Amino acid sequence: MPLLSVNSWFGTKSPFFTQTMRHCVPNPEVILIMSLLFAGSIIFLIISAVAFSFNSTQAYGIASYDTPSTGTTPQTVSVTVTLERFNVDKPLYVYYHLQDFHQNVRYYVSNFSRKQLQSDNFNAAGLNKDCNKGGAVVNEPCGLIYQSLFNDTLASAPNNEVTFSISGASTSSNPVQPKVVKLAINMTGIAWKEDSKSTKMYGTAFRALPNNESIAVWMRTAPLSTFDKLYGRFTPEQFKALTTDSHTAETIFYDSQMGGVTVEFSVTNNFPYGKKSIVLQQMTVFGGYYETRNLAILSTILGCILFICALTFLVIFLERGPRSAKYKTVLEQYPIVTNSSILLSELERTGDEKVRRTIRQVKAEMGLK
């Protein structure tokens, strides 16, 4: 026999029993649900419209180049990227894109020495015990991550310059001469602030390495086998060299939509792994080109789903009408039965005659069989 019979607590208002805690049983109104669904759909559709608007004016360009054969002498190749929707008033970011290169293997990710990277001397005793030094390399970090460093150079030495070409839209009455300008890639300020400013990640020895920010970007291993990593950037101040009376910001943007803006890279092809590409893009508040586009698509889908659900509730509400007052009366009169997680049929089967009589009355008033 249970410690407390059903009769002893049936109909009680004591909050000790969860069956009588009315706040545990949500009873939302249909109008409230419809309002929330419509509001959610409007919010997501607004986000989608804004993201599509930003994405339609966001600069993007990509070009791939071949991976050198293993053991061959590094060769310099010319890679031309056609830049679409180019805005000279925004920074332009240069990424190298790798496919089929796995940085997410456990042995690869863990093959470095944190103490060595934080030290003032790479060769101090005991600092590289977590990874192999790898040959006769001195004054450099140990481990597979650093040893597999992306070492292609995407610009001409010694000034790290690339060539911007703007063809211009010429007519017989208004001839426009093509504009060709060499601009240097800025490779500073590309690492995370925690990597470039704080001493928690890298010490004095690491910061003394040439291109230490590019190395810090590579040391942040990617979770997928296809990824982009930041190589450098161009600032709006540099793009002032592109603008003239015949090549204004508006005409350059129009020319880029017609495929008239190209960027030529002189690539020293050293890195022998994966499929490689150069990516140029400008950012929005939502991120890069594909991030903004994907957010717009997902927001559209979610907004449409919420709108369809709201319409479904509206049709049901107009067809069936609001919930009857009898239902609310039953809930208030028999809270222990209607709010309980125990099935009515189970109570009717196990309870005494008083319980079964009450259950039958509740079913009759609620229209249940």
From TrEMBL:
Subcellular location: Membrane
Gene Ontology cellular-component annotations: endoplasmic reticulum; Golgi apparatus; plasma membrane
Family listed: Belongs to the CDC50/LEM3 family.
Keyword Transmembrane helix: yes
Membrane topology listed for this record: Multi-pass membrane protein
Keywords: Membrane, Transmembrane, Transmembrane helix
Originating species: Giardia duodenalis assemblage B
Residue ranges of the TM segments: 30-54, 295-318
Name of the protein in question: CDC50
Organism domain of life: Eukaryota
